[in-house]
Amino acid sequence: MVTELVRPPAPPQRNGRVAGGLLDPGQMVRSLPAAVRKLNPVTLWRNPVMLIVEVGAVFTTVLAILDPSFFAWAIVVWLWLTVLFANLAEAVAEGRGKAQAATLRSAKRDTTARLADGKIVGAAELRQGDTVIVEAGEIIPGDGDVIEGIASVDESAITGESAPVIRESGGDRSAVTGGTKVLSDRIVVRITQKPGESFIDRMIALVEGANRQKTPNEIALNILLAALTIIFLVATVTMQPMAVYAKAENPGIADSLALTGDGVTGVVLISLLVCLIPTTIGALLSAIGIAGMDRLVQRNVLAMSGRAVEAAGDVSTLLLDKTGTITLGNRQAADFVPVEGVTEQELAEAAQLSSLADETPEGRSIVIFAKERYGLRERELYGASWVPFTAQTRMSGVDVDGRQIRKGAATAVMKWVRDGGGHPSEKVGPIVDGISASGGTPLVVADQGRVLGVIHLKDVVKKGMRERFDEMRRMGIRTVMITGDNPRTAKAIADEAGVDDFLAEATPEDKLALIRREQEGGRLVAMTGDGTNDAPALAQADVGVAMNTGTSAAKEAGNMVDLDSNPTKLIEIVEIGKQLLITRGALTTFSIANDIAKYFAIIPAMFAAVYPGLDALNIMRLASPQSAILSAVVFNALIIIALIPLALRGVRYRPSSASQLLSRNLYIYGLGGIIAPFAGIKLIDLLIQFLPGMS
Q1: In the predicted model, what is the mean pLDDT of residues 614-627?
Q2: pLDDT over 60 (residue 6)
Q3: Using H for helix, E for strand and C for coil, what is the string for 593-655?
Q4: Alpha-carbon gap, residue 288 to 591, rounded angstroms
Q5: What is the pLDDT of residues 639-669, one digit of tens each?
Q6: Torsion angle (degrees, nearest 10) of CA 652, 656, 660, 663
Q7: Residue 439: which region, alpha, beta or left (left: phi > 0; alpha: psi -120 to 50)?
Q8: Residue 403: in which H helix or E strand, if any?
Q9: Which residues touch 518 (CB under 8 Å, ≥6 apart)?
Q10: Deepest of 24, 238, 495, 565, by most Cβ within 10 A of its Cβ?
């Protein structure tokens, strides 16, 4: 079975970014059933902190049934709400992905495949290596590579773009995806997928979160949270023996104040434990990871694992192809430089004539430049003999009206002139060298035995690239431009774009060697690629982003796929990865600071009667121990709900150094985590102190 897909509507854009989407109140309501289902201990055991809270909620429920009171039942309700809110955070994060998956599945339909031998089979019966024929109007039955023909393909089901794309054999745009539609012509496709492992199948699994595994950092943080939970558990357990000893020393103290009353002791100790363990970050940790992957999906990037997203945040070296990433991709005519004795008009006319049959982007740019700069319009030539460009001759041109006009690489044209008995001007060499030194590409134009001048083709650096690379530098990321140009040209482009380094005349082996050298220095490396020759480097890189238009080998080697095939998106991917790490760090800081503040807010109020010296620390002046503990439990639950939008949207990322990020993190989330409980618990205490059983 293959899917012909209707892509869900793209989320709204805001300032060039995808708007939240996850923060829809309706989504929170729809996620409630999933949050309730996650109360199952079999599901919750993956989150040890919240499992402890649920176990505590069960015990308090039993205690409240055995010795009912308003205080006990209020604690029971809020402990269960704490677990439910934690589950809700994860359910909301998963909800958008599941909604996308449901939309994708709803459009599934059976598709047949016509094998090369004429046999018709169901798409589900296809195996790796099968060859199928797809004609205009038919659905491509499975993932594969075009091995024959060229066709226009509608890939809107995958990319969301309505404009068709060209897929052809023998190049880096040969990969096709099952479920897309051929609009014109006929292609022969060799199936590369295994049954049930098509790109669409993996896409559905990824947006559902079914394949999300905890990253190493996430596992390490979970271990830290579990350790803190154990420490606070031991500390809480020791409080009752201390209270019993204090009761013996001060017989006049009420049982409730001494934590020795049979009806409230267990409830109070469990409540205290829940308030002190890191429940905030424990509740939000999974949601932060899921939301990070969702932000990539919103930008049409599929990460094959959470590890890849996290690695993007730690990247310290960025390898970027020059063509299409740093520059616009096609060199354009920028100037006509005639030799002495030749006018610019004469050179422009010859350059245009030699380019009329040149269908390359460079050739078209020469025709347009001559038209716009010198008013030369395209013309029909009768009896002309066109000379196409070949890799052997490295030049093209036209023979017309007894004239032989050629344009091409300097060495090739100069040799052609000499072979024809001509004598190239000595002025040509300095012009060619000057254009090359500036980062341009020189094309020499000759008319029979005479060199007329040089066309200056220029790689145009995309607007704003220097500013983006400056941002990368502030983030501590080193940028390296990869190009097949000669070192002189590469240096000129690198200087104009503002990259830190470049690799000229790069081969696949050179790219792989560069990545390994960077990794040996302890750096994480990210790169993009689309061809089979990029596959080894993509597999070696810590973050390998394959273009969806690329070959199947490239997409299999990378750990991310960009559905829009936009190489510059690698910079956005790094920013999303860093935002994920910053969000996790900020909320961890807030959670730990939060717990410390709750400790100093609650303990003095609870034990001031037992140890009068603690009254000096009771700066909040809470109404009673029962009010203090209930206020803390309520605050502990509500702060999770308050932080869900931040966890899903992510902390705002600003390019800056690690030390600046740490300082900002400590000031905003460390200091905020200390202040918030004092203000919140006091406000809640003022509201509930007049409730029955709270005095």
Answers
A1: 77
A2: no
A3: HHHHHHHHHHHHHHHCCCCHHHHHHCCCCCCCHHHHHHHHHHHHHHHHHHHHHHHHHCCCCCC
A4: 14
A5: 999 998 888 888 887 777 767 777 888 888 8
A6: 10
A7: left
A8: strand 403-408
A9: 317, 525
A10: 565
What angle is formed at CA 555 by the lines to CA 551 and CA 559, rounded to 5 degrees?
Answer: 160
pLDDT in tens, 70-111: 888 999 999 999 999 999 888 887 776 666 666 555 544 557
Structure-derived torsion over alpha carbons of residues 114, 160, 171, 533, reported in degrees to the nearest 10: -120
205 SS3 class:
helix
Using CA atoms of 235, 236, 242, 243 in order, give the dihedral in degrees to the nearest 10. 160
- CA diameter of the chain: 122
Quick one: which of 305, 135, 132, 144 has its CA closest to 218?
Answer: 305
Q: What Cα–Cα distance (Å) separates residue 374 from each residue in 332, 346, 451?
A: 16, 10, 20
How far CA 520 is from CA of 152, 422, 438, in Å, comes to 44, 55, 34
Alpha helices, H only, 107-198: 156-159
| Pick from 488, 489, 435: nearest CA to 323 | 489
Q: Among all residues, which ones are annotated catalytic? A: 321
Compute the average pLDDT of residues 361-375: 84
Is 342:452 a contact under the CB 8 Å cutoff? Answer: yes
| pLDDT surpasses 80 at 24 | no
Taking CA atoms, 599 is separated from 218, 306, 603, 617, 678, in Å, by 26, 34, 6, 11, 10
Tens digit of each residue's pLDDT (9 = 90 or more) over 376-411: 766 666 667 888 877 677 888 888 888 889 998 888
Contact indicator for 259, 240 with CB cutoff of 8 Å: yes
Beta strand ranges found along 245-401 (DSSP E): 301-303, 317-321, 332-338, 385-387, 395-400
Cα–Cα–Cα angle for 666, 672, 674, rounded to 5 degrees? 95
Q: Decide: 118 and 43 in contact? Cβ < 8 Å.
A: no
Can you tell me the distance from the alpha carbon of 96 to that of 102, in angstroms, rounded to the nearest whole number? 10
> Mapping DSSP to helix (H, G, I), strand (E, B) and coil, where does residue 292 land?
helix
